[in-house]
Design goal:
Chain C: Belongs to the complex I subunit 6 family. The complex is a heterotrimer of chains A (about 475), B (about 350) and C (about 210). With about 350 residues, chain B is mainly alpha-helical. Chain B is about 65% helix and about 0% strand. Chain C has about 210 residues and is mainly α. Chain C folds into three domains: about 1-80, Four Helix Bundle (Hemerythrin (Met), subunit A) (Up-down Bundle); about 80-115; about 135-170. Chain C is elongated, with a radius of gyration of 29 Å. The chains are: A mainly alpha (about 475), B mainly alpha (about 350), C mainly alpha (about 210). At the A-C interface, α2, α5, α6, α7 and α9 of A face α4 and α6 of C.
């Protein structure tokens, strides 16, 4: 039966949606179930990851992975992204209860919305049809808007949510307009059909459609020139939510962009490559320069994420299997770095247990909280791409892929900009280690934070190079699955 | 009817046109008469339950009371408050009245006697009845007066709330009948109960739906005990406060036409419409024309409406909302699941 | 003949109502014009034979969405002078949006001209089934080919609802005014509510 095979392919999504519905009921009928629901949501995400894993390990690709008449693909590429998404969602669930404890217990809507956001992202990365793409994107975005303003009594959080909503709605409109143009000029919404229809010469309408679709997606991955919302939203949203925004949705949007670019628009690589190259370079430069003046750590990390998206897009610009593989490796490393650094920010609390976010507040952290300072320093050096740390490896593979695809100039500019970027990362380290202790950060942290910070720090330390083999292997399989149609 | 006019020598288009106009008049005029009489019935029933005599002066048994009232308002001056929004103030009653008549286009009075036998008959009724709220809301706003405005707010919230559950309840009926054509729904009820009773009310799954539908119908038409839009103890006369003369009469007529429509829907959806109550040919049973059965059923339901009005005290507003959103909505959703599950099990097979 | 007349009537009314939606000074009038536009659009739908879509348009947009819209607008206290002041300020933006829409129109015409591409040719599986009603056809497509998307769209609506409630709902404290426990009301007996007293003359009753 076709329906049954389709249902088997979307098993992880079914698990997530049923879990979300069940948890909603639990939350509705029992008061203060926030903690329980959080744990159960993490378990559901873990279960979904387990269901996803076989497709990645076996390198699933081709028509057997297509569900619902080609609207959905459960191939190795999607699985790679899904595992990253689910794992980072679990991490963001783990760090949340402690954060929200300060003003009453965590509300059960948080894990439920997280779960649905993860579901939306899973649908995004598996989309092989523009309608699936849009549905997944909206599911993720709607949950994200609410999560951004989840601390409704906090002005900054409400502002972040509103800003994100208005700009996100605009981006959705742009995307939808692009999709309608592509549909109008190709007569189909499936990636496969669009690819076939675009194999000839690119008409004006198709080009416009392509540009609008990429612009809409660029908003979601926060690539320049659609990055303006990022610092405000990252700063205003509750920190666990910011952690989430910096990791999972980014993975989903990048993976989705890669699939759209290489699958649907795969025959017109020259048309989109220049856009991607521009976005990559602009993101790297704006991210690096914008971060310099920031005094809020969350804002600073927001610019850092813009900067990193640039490097990720370099991998996409290469447009080869090696490029996609490098992109995925970078993505995985980036997720670990973001998780680590945001969790470290989450652990900065003053004596009253309130969050501390200012750069000045962490002055002399090395003397008051040496271990935390060390971990944060490892993260910063890793984000800067200083060689002994694992962050370097991600940049290395991406640039290598770019060079191999004859994009030497792009790689050269990228390397130069990453040197500028290193400036502010090192500034953070300098503030922590060489400035007079401000003595603000004195609060305690709980085990979940330490666990995540410890694991990510270990992964980013030179120990991480033990993973290169496995990571590279899986990324290669995923890239191969993505380019299977090509 | 078109064929009849064609036989008079008209070409098809003209015949169709004249036939349609004639059909509309054939429904609208008796409906107006029925409304006049049903107001009389309403007052009589109400009086009887309150141990009063009711209207008994004008004409034999007071039968002409409604016409006397009609004549009186017709001769009054139409007063438009100076602060009112004149255009909308005048349009509102017309909207109420027109919309109340529109829905009757798809009501079947017999196997053939229906003005528009369309596929989406029930949806059409739902769509039109959802328009009814505009007359009330616009009149309340255009009056530029406090009580009518409160009434308009209440009406908007109340009607939307109950429309939601009415929609879901109707879905259950559509599912069971397998069509949303009104005649199709009636046909589906032939011998529905053990091969003898004509009507969905005999079905254990649909009976609770009928009960909910009846109550929602009371709320949707703002009849007692849900007549909060014109709760005289709080809002003077609600949205009608500033109206006089014919504009007032139009509200009155529209309201009762809506009530009759809801009675007709009860009869058609759950009690077999123009089918005789039993699917057994008792003496001249099948020879009685369908419309007589339908009228009898409508009358029965109208009696229930009056009876409720005379005996049940008015709901408080929050109770009304609670009933709609917290009781009827979940229940109607539950019944959709039950009904469709049962139909999948018995009619379509599980794996389909 | 009648179809042509009806088409022009509906089309004209849609356009006119659209124009008046923008031109009306009073926002309530704007909403009412908008409703008229919806209504006539439903008429156009009927003309092209999509009676189910027309019914949905009326039930959902006219019957529910626009009523809530009207509800909100009626309660607003809008300062018209301020609105008009904003008009001048936002004029360049409005022009920009108008230009974008114009570009859209041109592209749309371009898409229409590019007939050689066989625009939107149905690929067999989605070909219309003429012998069945719109209702059945839509049902077959929504619950067949597009089952996955349909259900996912349902989850989107659920998320929107959960989000709206999570952001706005503030729990009412227990025992607050207006909280009704129907079971408790029904259980109450006259004996609990009243107490018989025989007051002595001139003493009164202790309450």
């Amino acid at each position: 039966m076709q329906l049954q095979s389709s249902l088997a392919l979307i098993a992880p999504e079914i698990v997530l949606s049923l879990a979300g519905l069940a948890l909603l009921l639990i939350a509705a009928w029992s008061r203060n179930a926030g903690r329980l629901v959080t744990i159960l949501a993490a378990v559901a995400l873990g279960g979904a990851s387990v269901l996803v894993a076989p497709a990645l390990c076996s390198g699933a690709m081709g028509p057997d992975t297509l569900a619902f008449e080609g609207q959905f693909a459960a191939d190795a590429f999607a699985s790679f992204a899904k595992i990253l998404i689910f794992v980072s969602a679990i991490a963001c669930l783990m760090v949340a209860p402690r954060f929200f404890d300060r003003d009453g217990a965590i509300r059960a809507e948080y894990p439920v919305l997280m779960l649905f956001a993860a579901l939306g992202m899973a649908i995004m990365v598996s989309a092989t049809d523009f309608m699936t793409l849009y549905i997944g994107l909206e599911l993720n975005s709607l949950a994200a808007y609410v999560l951004a303003s989840f601390m409704r009594s906090d002005d900054r959080s409400a502002e972040a949510g509103l800003k994100y909503f208005v700009l996100g709605a605009l981006a959705s409109g742009i995307l939808l307009y692009g999709i309608s143009l592509v549909y109008g000029f190709t007569g189909t919404t499936s990636f496969e059909g669009a690819r076939a229809a675009m194999s000839g010469e690119l008409s004006m309408g198709m080009l416009f459609g392509l540009i609008f679709v990429l612009a809409g997606l660029a908003f979601k991955i926060a690539a320049v020139p659609f990055h303006m919302w990022t610092p405000d939203v990252y700063e205003g949203a509750p920190t666990p939510v910011t952690t989430f925004f910096a990791t999972a949705p980014k993975v989903a949007a990048v993976a989705l962009t890669a699939r759209v670019a290489l699958d649907a628009f795969g025959m017109q690589m020259d048309a989109w490559r220049q856009i991607v190259i521009f976005a990559a370079l602009a993101s790297i430069v704006v991210g690096a320069l914008g971060a310099i003046g920031q005094s809020n750590l969350k804002r600073l990390l927001a610019y850092s994420s813009i900067n990193n998206v640039g490097f990720i897009l370099i991998g996409l610009a290469a447009g080869t299997a090696a490029g996609v593989s490098a992109m995925l490796v970078y993505l995985a490393i980036y997720v670990a770095m973001s998780l680590g650094s945001f969790v470290a920010v989450l652990m900065l609390r003053n004596a009253q247990g309130e969050q501390v976010e200012g750069l000045a507040d962490i002055a002399g952290l090395s003397s008051t909280r040496p271990l935390l300072a060390l971990c944060l320093a490892v993260m910063m050096f890793s984000l800067a791409g200083i060689p002994p740390l694992f962050g370097f490896w991600g940049k290395f593979v991406v640039f290598w892929a770019a060079v191999e695809a004859d994009l030497v100039a792009l790689a050269a500019i990228g390397i130069a900009a990453s040197v500028i970027g290193a400036f502010y990362y090192i500034k953070v380290v300098k503030v922590m280690y060489f400035d007079e202790p401000a003595g603000v950060v004195t609060g305690r942290s709980d085990w979940a934070h330490w666990l995540i910070l410890g694991v990510t720090t270990a992964a980013m330390s030179p120990l991480g190079y033990l993973l290169t083999r496995v990571l590279g292997d899986l990324a290669d399989r995923a890239a191969e699955a993505l380019l299977f149609v090509a | 009817m078109t064929a009849f006019f064609q036989s008079l020598g008209m070409n098809y288009e003209w015949a169709w046109f004249v036939a349609t106009v004639a059909g509309i008049l054939l429904i609208a005029l008796p409906l107006m008469l029925a409304v006049a009489m049903i107001i009389y019935v309403d007052r009589k029933v109400w009086a009887a339950i309150a141990l009063r005599r009711g209207p008994n002066v004008v004409g034999p048994f007071g039968l002409l009371q409604s016409f006397a009232d009609g004549l009186k308002v017709f001769l009054q001056e139409t007063i438009i408050p100076s602060a009112a929004n004149k255009g909308l103030f005048l349009i509102a009653p017309i909207v109420t009245f027109t919309v109340a008549l529109l829905a009757w286009a798809v009501i079947p009075f017999g196997p053939e006697a229906v003005l528009a036998d369309i596929n989406i008959g029930l949806l059409y009724v739902l769509a039109i009845s959802s328009l009814g709220v505009y007359g009330v809301v616009v009149s309340g706003w255009a009056s530029n007066s406090k009580y009518p405005f409160f009434s308009a707010m209440r009406a908007a919230a109340q009607m939307i709330s109950y429309e939601v559950s009415i929609g879901f309840l109707l879905v259950c009926v559509i599912l069971w009948a397998g069509t949303s054509n009104m005649n199709g729904i009636i046909e589906a009820q032939r011998g529905h109960g053990l091969g003898i009773v004509n009507g969905f009310f005999f079905n254990p799954l649909l009976f609770p739906i009928w009960v909910m539908f009846l109550i929602s119908a009371l709320a949707e038409t703002a009849r007692a005990p849900f007549d909060l839009t014109e709760a005289e103890s709080e809002l003077v006369a609600g949205y009608q406060t500033e109206y006089s003369s014919m504009s007032f009469a139009l509200f009155w007529l529209g309201e009762y036409a809506n009530v009759l429509l809801m009675c007709a829907l009860n009869a058609i959806l759950f009690f077999g419409g123009w089918l005789p109550p039993l699917n057994v040919d008792l003496i001249p049973w099948f020879d009685i024309p369908g419309w007589i059965w339908l009228f009898a059923k409508i009358f029965m339901f109208f009696f229930i409406f009056s009876w409720v009005k005379a005996t049940v005290p008015r709901f408080r507003y929050d109770q009304l909302m609670r009933l709609g959103w917290k009781v009827f909505l979940p229940l109607s959703l539950l019944f959709i699941v039950l009904v469709s599950g049962w139909l999948m099990l018995t009619r379509y097979g599980v794996a389909a | 003949m009648i179809q042509t007349l009806a088409f022009y009537l509906f089309a004209f009314l849609v356009l006119a109502s659209g124009v008046f939606t923008i031109l009306a000074r009073n926002p309530v009038h704007s909403v009412l014009w908008l409703i008229l536009a919806f209504f006539n659009a439903a008429g156009l739908m009927i003309l092209v034979g999509a009676e189910f879509i027309a019914a949905l348009l009326v039930i959902v947009y006219v019957g529910a969405v626009a009523v809530l819209f009207l509800f909100v607008v009626m309660m607003l206290d809008i300062d018209f002078a301020e609105l008009r002041a904003g008009f001048v300020k936002n004029f360049p933006l409005g022009i920009a949006i108008a230009l974008v829409l114009l570009a859209e129109l041109i592209l749309g015409i371009g898409a229409y001209r590019a007939g050689a591409l066989e625009l939107g040719v149905p690929d067999g599986s989605a070909a219309p089934l003429m012998d069945r009603s719109n209702l059945e056809n839509l049902g077959t497509v929504l619950y067949g080919k597009y089952l996955f998307l349909f259900e996912a769209a349902g989850i989107i609506l659920l998320v929107a609802m959960v989000g709206a409630i999570a952001l706005t709902h503030r729990g009412r404290p227990e025992g607050a005014r207006g909280h009704q426990d129907i079971g408790k009301q029904v259980r109450r007996r006259p004996g609990e509510a009243t107490e018989m007293k025989k007051p002595e003359i001139g003493k009164g009753v202790e309450l």
